[in-house]
Write a structure and sequence with these properties.
InterPro entries: Kinase-like_dom_sf, Prot_kinase_dom, Ser/Thr_Kinases-Pseudokinases. The chain is mainly alpha-helical. It contains eight helices and seven strands. The chain has a single domain, classed as Transferase(Phosphotransferase), domain 1 (Orthogonal Bundle). A hairpin with a 4-residue loop joins strand 5 and strand 6. It starts with a helix and ends with a helix.
Length: 262
């Protein structure tokens, strides 16, 4: 079981402090004390749909943690249960990938196969890649698929296939169905929608690795931040202009009052 030996060979894997009575390990690069405010599921339930720039920021936290797992040498690691309840949020607002109960190490084999479905109770099955549900061979690209659904959920503000029952999810995947994009197109600007669609490609080989995901998200983050700055500047100019007009009006009324008093 991964929890028994994670800390022996993964430098940045640390045990949590009994988060909600769950024995969790999480990925952490900074060291020191880490205090959690809850998991991503509770954060999304409270916040609903997130602003694209904020969603991308959180997605980068997840992608960096997953890149660490997938690029670990000599044995890469598949999380296999990446979903919002298994992503913790610390007191600085950063996300930590956690809960490695179902993780799998890729030793000499590049792919693995399961005799029985790999999933967790509740809504976790909504994030499972179709090749796992079909009991086919799979590799670490199953985590990229799950990541795409999480990223889209942060922007849409609802569960993947929220209008479907749990037992209908596998059928939806079998028909190559994906959750619809209902948010305005501007929320998926600068290639964000295309990145999500690439990450949940039916063919695992077409899904990018997390290093590529990080690069693309970083570029999108820069463009979104630039767009937001341009939104703020006209507003500041307008407020400054209104402030000057009010000042002129006040000075004018003061001058007229002083002349009339004479």
């Amino acid at each position: 079981m991964f929890l028994n030996f994670a800390s022996l060979f993964l430098q940045h894997i640390r045990p949590s402090v009994d988060y909600q009575n769950r024995s969790l390990y999480f990925i952490d690069y900074q060291g020191g004390n880490v205090y959690f405010q809850g998991d991503l599921r509770k954060h999304l339930n409270r916040k609903g749909a997130l602003e694209p720039l904020y969603a991308v920021k959180l997605a980068l936290d997840i992608a960096r943690g997953m890149s660490y797992l997938h690029e670990h040498k000599p044995q890469a690691i598949i999380h296999r249960d990446l979903e919002p309840s298994n992503i913790l949020r610390d007191d600085t607002g950063h996300l930590k990938v956690a809960d490695f109960d179902l993780c799998k190490m890729l030793k000499w084999r590049r792919k693995v196969r399961e005799d029985k479905p790999v999933t967790s109770p509740g809504n976790a099955c909504r994030y499972v890649a179709p090749e796992v549900l079909r009991k086919e061979e799979y590799d670490n690209k199953v985590d990229v698929f799950s990541f795409a659904l999480i990223l889209q959920e942060m922007i849409e503000g609802c569960l993947p296939f929220h209008d479907k029952k749990i037992d209908e999810i596998e059928k939806a995947h079998s028909s190559k169905e994906r959750p619809p994009f209902r948010a305005p197109a501007k929320h998926y600007a600068y290639g964000l929608r295309e990145l999500i669609e690439k990450c949940w490609s039916e063919n695992p080989a077409d899904r990018p690795n997390f290093r590529v995901v990080i690069d693309r998200l970083s570029a999108i983050q820069i463009e979104l931040a630039r767009r937001n700055r341009w939104k703020v500047r006209p507003l500041k100019c307008f407020l400054s202009f209104e402030g000057l007009r009010k000042k002129d009006r006040n000075e004018g009324s003061t001058n007229r009052s002083s002349r009339s008093s004479r």
